[in-house]
Amino acid sequence: MDSRPTTRPDRRTFAIISHPDAGKTTLTEKLLLFGGAIHAAGEVKARGQARRARSDWMKIEQQRGISVTSSVMTFERDGLTFNLLDTPGHEDFSEDTYRTLTAVDSAVMVIDAARGIEAQTRKLFEVCRLRSVPIITFVNKVDREGRHPFDLLDEIASDLALDVSPMNWPVGMGGTFEGLYNLETKQLTKPDGTTAPADLSGHDPVGEELALIDAGYAAFDEVAYRHGDLTPVFFGSALKDFGVSELIDALARFAPSPRPQPAEPEAVSPDDAAVTGFIFKVQANMNPMHRDRVAFMRLCSGKFKRGMKLNQVGTGKAIAVHSPILFFAQNRETAEEAWPGDIIGIPNHGTLRVGDTLTDGPPKTITGLPNFAPEILRRIALKDPTKTKQLRKALDDLAEEGIIQVFYPEVGSAWVVGVVGQLQLEVLISRLEVEYKVDAKLEPSPWDTARWLAGDARDIDAFATIHRGALARDRDGALVFMAKDAWELNYVKERNPNLRFSATKERA
């Protein structure tokens, strides 16, 4: 094995997080446009052949105008390779979003200049904080009427407990917008795109605002940013192309190259010679004509080459990766090689699942990709009983993707599906109908929540004897306690202190 380091500092793997309607899709499009990955604004939203650039490909996404899956888009600019992971914007998709954020090294947080920090933004930020993901903030829509920039900066600082460092400043807003002033270069970029040096120190009230910025906000500190303690803030308008180029430049200059990944028995460093990666997403039927299934793998270390064999940690199975995919905005390309930070797609037929670690070196398991206890449980019933086999296949597929969880009760035959949010139920029914031609309905479940059971085998057997009717198995065969409500869950936990009732389950 080649023992030379394999680090490639030219990778920037990042996600865009925001509340719905903050402008994430438009900003994604403009990043691809400025990166040369698409050639005309509107291609991301276009129909027909040009829709290959669009991340919102699922039928329910087209109908509702929201992203409910995570997509990968790669573009190159000035010798750097940017891997952009688009995250679901809807609040019901926190689980899929969480897994996507495990695969990035930094994030761009988009905030609407008129609305400030919204609920979903705050939730996604907390996920980033759990993993100390560095964040660049982009305050969008400054060409429209909005809140004062100082109000927005102070809200970020107070609500998110972050130091803020403004990198540019809007001169006016909405109808009075005159351009963006770069606080580092002292240049003003006007709405017509022209840029020239500008002295705004005597420009009232902008001169007073600049003086307050110098006195009241921290200078940009790259170390603090990379630790997740400080966010550089850029103002702009994705729709009008204001500030987008500066945002890409900031990602190039400041965002970290691939970082070490938490793993057992030890962390995986991007410098490690062994090829190691983990599956953070599985997507079925991206091309319904071919019934394809693609596992998205974040490469953490080593130089990957097409055709190499990787061991699936946990099963010990060797998997030959003959047709790896790189995702560009307008097409897919076969990946002849890939480096730490890259995202490759591995076509497979149910072999790979979310949370799997693949390596050609000593066994290591990437950690931090748990299953989450569902917040909504429903029984699923077929309208046509002859479609049982198709339903089982569909539920297995969707469970592999992490869209749903499936539970098989120890007593009774009605399968139970669990989801984190209500919208996932709509996705389930829509995809069953469109992709699998299965007409099913959801019925109330006698249970409200589920917890994975762990403890001594004798204690579990004794518990099962009493509570058999409230037990189920997940698709891995792990035992799950199904509670009718929070009161029952707490009561049972108090009566069984030797057992653990876990709200998360890490893949083995």
Automatic annotation (TrEMBL):
CDD domains noted in UniProt: RF3
InterPro entries linked to this entry: EF-G-like_DII, EFG_III/V, G_TR_CS, P-loop_NTPase, PrfC, RF3_C, RF3_dom_3_sf, RF3_GTP-bd
GO biological process, one term: regulation of translational termination
GO terms assigned for molecular function: GTP binding; GTPase activity; guanosine tetraphosphate binding; translation release factor activity, codon nonspecific; translation release factor activity, codon specific
Membrane-traversing stretches: none
SUPFAM superfamilies reported in the protein's UniProt record: EF-G C-terminal domain-like, P-loop containing nucleoside triphosphate hydrolases, Translation proteins
Cellular component, GO annotation: cytosol
Listed NCBIfam families: prfC, PRK00741.1, small_GTP
Family affiliation: Belongs to the TRAFAC class translation factor GTPase superfamily. Classic translation factor GTPase family. PrfC subfamily.
Reported function: Increases the formation of ribosomal termination complexes and stimulates activities of RF-1 and RF-2. It binds guanine nucleotides and has strong preference for UGA stop codons. It may interact directly with the ribosome. The stimulation of RF-1 and RF-2 is significantly reduced by GTP and GDP, but not by GMP.
Name this polypeptide is given: Peptide chain release factor 3
Gene: prfC
